[in-house]
Amino acid sequence: MVNVGIVGGTGYTGIELLRLIAAHPHLHIAEITSRGEAGRRVDEIFPGLRGVTDLVFQEPDPVRLSRCDVVLFATPNGIAMQSTRELLDAGCKVIDLGADFRLRDASRWQQWYGMEHACPDLLAEAVYGLAELNRAAIAEAKLVANPGCYPTAVALGLLPLLESQQFDLGHIVADCKSGVSGAGRALKLQTLFCEANESFKAYGASGHRHLPEIEQVLGDALGGCVDISFVPHLVPMTRGMQATLHVPVDGSLEQFHALYAQRYADEPFVDLMDSGEHPETRWVAGSNRSLVALHQSASRRDRLVILAVIDNLTKGASGQAIQNLNLMFGFKEETGLVSAECSA
Ligand SMILES: NC(=O)C1=CN([C@@H]2O[C@H](COP(=O)(O)OP(=O)(O)OC[C@H]3O[C@@H](n4cnc5c(N)ncnc54)[C@H](OP(=O)(O)O)[C@@H]3O)[C@@H](O)[C@H]2O)C=CC1
Ligand SMILES: CC(=O)N[C@@H](CCC(=O)OP(=O)(O)O)C(=O)O
C-alpha cells in the first residue's frame, strides 16, 4: 500500500480525495490535516464516510507528513510551496492541487498570485500534471503540479488541434462556466446561496489567474504561442464545468472529428462524442471523464466550436490528482477512478 498524506482534508477537493481514495485498492491515508478540525474524527465532520474511515484530523506537521510516500496538498495557493522542499528531501513525492508549481516562470507567478514564490528553484523540476500531455514525465516525477480546473477543460478541448500543427489557428475564445464548488468551501460573500442561486455572472473578465496557465499549457502542446481570450462564469450549480471554445480554423467537421478520434482513441478519460452532440455537466458528475464534442455551422467552414465538459472537483482537481498518483507509483492509470463514477 502507498501511504498518502492529505493537507487540507476539510476542503472540497480534500473531501473528494477522501471519497476517491476510499475506493482505491492500493492507497492508504496515513495522515490528514485540518487546522480548524484538528482532533476530531473525519466521519464526525463528514458522516457520509461513517464506516469507511476511522481517521482523525491532525494539525499539519511536516515531520509526520514526511513519513508518507506521497503528500497531496489540497490547500489554498501559496501553502504547498512552504514545505515541499522539506518533503522532497525526506523522500516523499508531492502533488499540489493548488497553483504553486504550475507556472514555470516565478516572476509571472508573482505577478498573477501577488506573492513571492518560496522555492522558485523547484519550478523547473515540477511536472505539469496533465496526463494527456505529459504522461511519461509524470511517471518519473517527484513533484507534480496538478492543473487548474479551467486550464484542464480548455486544454482537453484543444490538444488535438494544437498538436497536429496542421492548422493556422486564429484568435481562440474560451468561454468557460464553473459550478460554485470551484471557489472552495471557505466562507466568501459571492458564494453564499442567496448571492449565487438563481443568478449568473462572468468574473475575472479583464484577467483571471488561469490565463497564464492556459497560455503555458496550450503553448507546450503547440510548440509556440497561442492567442486566446478566457472569460470564466459562475453557474448556480454545485459541481461541473464547461469550456466552450470558439476557434477560427479552416477545415471540415469530418476532418476535425477524425483528428480528435485518432488523438483520443487511447485516452481513458477523454470521451469524444459524436459531432453535433451537446455534453452536459451532470453526465460527468463525480467522474474523472471529460466529454468533448465538435460543432460547425453548415455555412461556416472557417469556424469550429468545441465543447469540453468536466467535473471541476474530479477531472478538474482530485480525480486528476489520483490519475497522476497512479502514474507516479506505476499503477494502471484508471485504478480507483472508474469504479468511483456516478452519472445522472
Ligand atoms: N474547488 C475546485 O474545483 C478546485 C480547486 N483547486 C485548488 O485546490 C486547492 C484546494 O481547493 P478547495 O478544496 O476548493 O479549497 P477549500 O477552501 O475548500 O479547502 C482548503 C483546505 O485547506 C486547508 N487550509 C487552509 N489554509 C491552510 C494552511 N495555511 N495550511 C494548511 N491547510 C490549510 C483548510 O482547512 P483548515 O483551514 O482547517 O486547515 C481546508 O481543508 C486550491 O489551491 C484550489 O485553488 C483546483 C482545481 C479545482
Ligand atoms: C468558481 C471559481 O471561483 N473557481 C475558481 C477556480 C478554481 C481553481 O482551479 O483554482 P486554482 O487555480 O486556484 O487551483 C476561481 O475562478 O478562482
From TrEMBL:
Name of the protein this chain belongs to: N-acetyl-gamma-glutamyl-phosphate reductase
InterPro entries registered for this protein in UniProt: AGPR, AGPR_AS, AGPR_dimerisation_dom, AGPR_type-1, NAD(P)-bd_dom_sf, Semialdehyde_DH_NAD-bd
Keywords, comma-separated and alphabetical: Amino-acid biosynthesis, Arginine biosynthesis, Cytoplasm, NADP, Oxidoreductase
E.C. designation(s): 1.2.1.38
Organism encoding this protein: Halorhodospira halochloris (Ectothiorhodospira halochloris)
Top-level taxon in the UniProt lineage: Bacteria
Function of the protein: Catalyzes the NADPH-dependent reduction of N-acetyl-5-glutamyl phosphate to yield N-acetyl-L-glutamate 5-semialdehyde.
NCBIfam families named among the record's database cross-references: argC
Catalytic activity, reaction form: N-acetyl-L-glutamate 5-semialdehyde + phosphate + NADP(+) = N-acetyl-L-glutamyl 5-phosphate + NADPH + H(+)
Gene Ontology BP annotations: L-arginine biosynthetic process
Location in the cell: Cytoplasm
UniProt keyword annotation of Amino-acid biosynthesis present: yes
Pathway linked to the protein: Amino-acid biosynthesis; L-arginine biosynthesis; N(2)-acetyl-L-ornithine from L-glutamate: step 3/4
GO cellular component: cytoplasm
Cytoplasm among keywords: yes
Gene this protein is translated from: argC
Enzyme class: oxidoreductase
Gene3D superfamilies to which the protein is assigned, alphabetical: Dihydrodipicolinate Reductase, domain 2, NAD(P)-binding Rossmann-like Domain
Segments forming domain Semialdehyde dehydrogenase NAD-binding: 3-141
Residues annotated as catalytic: C149
GO molecular function: N-acetyl-gamma-glutamyl-phosphate reductase activity; NAD binding; NADP+ binding
Family designation: Belongs to the NAGSA dehydrogenase family. Type 1 subfamily.
